[in-house]
Amino acid sequence: MPVSLTLNCPIRGKLKAAAKSADGLTPSEESRRIEAIRFLLGKGYPKENFKVEATVKKLGNRGRNSVRADLAVLDVPLTSIESGDVDALLEHAVLLGEIKRDNKSAAEAKATQVDPLLDFAHKDDCVALYWDDTEQRIFWREHREGERRKDHEAPALSLPPFGNKITVQPLTLEDTVPTDSLLDAFRRIEDILHGSGIDPEARYGVILQLLLTKLYDEHSHETTPTEPLALQDYKALGTTPANALKQANKALSKAVGYYGKHLPQAVPKKFEISDETLLELLEILAPIGILASSQEVMQTFYMHFAKHLYKWDLAQYFTPVTVSDFIATALSPGFGEHIKDPACGSADFLTSAYRIGSQKDPNYGQCVWGADNSANAVQVAVLNMLLNGDGKSNINLEDSLEKCATYEDRYEIMICNPPFGTQILESRKKVLEQYALGRKWEEVEGVLQPTQEIREKQQMGILFVELCVRQAQPGGRIAVIVPNGYLGNRSTQYMALREWILRKCRVVSVSSFPRFTFKTSGADVSASVLFLEKRDEAVPDSTHDSEYPIHIGLIETVGWRLGDKKAKPVYKRDPDDGSFETDERGNFVLHTDFERILGEMKSSDAGKEWDWLARDSEPSDDPGWSIPAGEVVGEGTLCLDPKRWSRKAMELRQSIAEKPHFRLGDVVDFVEQEKGKWGAAEVFRYVPLDLMAGGGYRWSTMRGWELPDRARHSAEAGDMFLGAIWGSVQKWMLAGGDTDHLLVTNGCHRIRLKDTSPEGQDRLVDLVAAFSSDAYATQMRSFARGSDGLAEVGEDDVAEVLIPEISSEDIRESIRPFVKQLLEGHPSIQAKIDDLLASGELDIPIPARRPSHSVLV
Hints:
The protein is an alpha+beta fold and about 850 residues long. It has four domains: about 45-160, no CATH class; about 180-295; about 315-635, 3-Layer(aba) Sandwich (Rossmann fold), CATH 3.40.50.150; about 660-840, Alpha-Beta Complex (Adenine-n6-DNA-methyltransferase TaqI, Chain A, domain 2), CATH 3.90.220.20. Helix content is about 35%, strand content about 20%. The chain contains 28 helices and 34 strands. A nine-stranded mixed beta sheet has the order 11-10-9-12-17-19-18-20-22, with helices on both faces. A six-stranded mixed beta sheet has the order 3-4-5-6-7-8, with helices on both faces. Helix 4 crosses helix 5 and helix 7 packs across helix 8 (about 275-285). The longest helix has 21 residues, at about 200-220. The two termini are about 35 Å apart. The model is unreliable at about 20-25 (pLDDT under 50).
């Protein structure tokens, strides 16, 4: 199916343009034209003087064939000349443009399309514009009486304001423009080096030299943005090739001296390429503003670049930019506020914080600190920071857990995505004894307290949470990503973590990510980010000082395809026609919830309580959702899992509670599962989760020795089985009819009505209706505790599910036949046929059961 883009042209308004690529995700030529139009409007070219798709030469019989310029700008309004009058258009054309989607055929396009545009032009001062994804250049001719004409070219940035003559000036930092694909620009540079006979390994060495020189050049001009840069488009300035190479080598030497101590390998201080090749490379590189390019552009380039230069596969290191930007923006780093990531990995959080902090503090690099115990990670982090403009790079190779006390109470902001998982453990006693959460905790008079006994092992993720809090200054703020199991599991070590957090901090916000958000880095868990503010003084236990709001957010879309290790991007699309939305530069817009969540943070009660929370974000029109901290403290397990406290779950329960209803635990008993002492030769009917649906069920016939360990529940008529795992809470069944030798998987809760009287049995009407609804499944999912797809809804939580009471007798009467059908064991025609086949009443052959799903017949 053809895919289109929704583009906003400043001249023609909203456009639908074809995305001319196989995947539909490559910007079209039309979007490049809009980029060029915006550039020209910025130079003062009048909107009314533009002509899109202008014919500049008619050819063939009656002019049926023609040569067109993708764009023409006149010195008079377009309405002042007659439509279709080519001569009149060329008499007034001051600019003729050729637009290409990409740089693949740039040389040919310039020779066969751009150069002829100047031949067709009538005005001596007419300029030809060439524009693609990598190069944007202008061409003009100098006509002097008695002399041969002279052709010139320069970066498009050299184009003067409308009505002025071209005078090529040296580029300044203020002149440079960010690129949407630094990777494409450097691929073009690599092609030039390849064409110059430079082997692949040496190419990447030259690219590193160019990159460091360009970074140093821009960084050193941040305080003097109107002064000429060291690296220029020397050809446009008329500099001789030899002098250009000399100037570039001088700039390179300074850059290597500045950055060299941070780099994993030594970098030569001279370019080993010809001066002509250098001129060609700088035509592309000089006009680009690398520091102004987005962090996502830099990350995409760096992952490709480092893979070839250092033979590093960086996918395992990087946190997606949308995530790191979201968290850093919520923390709102300000002037002079020091921020540290003690498990910095590739420093993505720090590069986001650096970019945000630099908007308020030009020297913010001196406030950014990172540590990691992996030498490779430190090298990755340092280069990432350099690439994003920080020439200081306070990244250290250090065992943060071992040196926690060294930096106690030091930083205004702590930010971390620590290594977490039940198998990622710290077992060194000298480390564990430094931490309150490295000790065993016991309940004393109803309150958890640490003992003097050191644990044999503790999850590193838990220790990093304590480290982040301890290294923050009193009143400092902390953001740490944790698996949802830390926030909801009932076991003592997780409840101790939450108790410790609530004593040492106020919980400002908890925002959950959808499952598989971090799958690309190998973490197949559901996780949330905790935003905390460290108390000036710790309180004795969590019941003290709980009268404050906690923002709760549920992030649903993150900008890439979840569950896909390649993490392909997901872009916003028009809900009516499916066309891709684009920004004002014609770029696709990632489909994420982060901007919405930031706005809700700021507009929430928590945002009003803590003015730093998402301080620089636009507030949401819809007030964000907050809960009183007392709700968490009063829950009994100190659950901080945002699913439980989400607006969707809590407003749903409130809506049910406002009408006749009952607690599920008030009308049913939970029946314990059995331990399966089944006879090896006995024949059973086994019901797994995937054979339950809508109250009904099917089964697989098995002998006792074939039964899986999961076959734990025997069934009696009238028993109900509810899916107990997050991913299967919509599964349920009502056992009916002949239940002899019927066994059900242990992935369920087995429940039974308390009241066996006819009136009590009629509660099945309410239960069957509720279990078949999304209202029930939503409550169950919100109660699930754990950090993966096996997160479980415990009996205590299932008992709290609210069941709407059906008050209309007519509706109850209409549901009763379905309940009766379930109790008879015939919830569907399939179940009826299975019964008839098993009894032999239906004479259809029963083939041998397939031993596995991979058997073809």
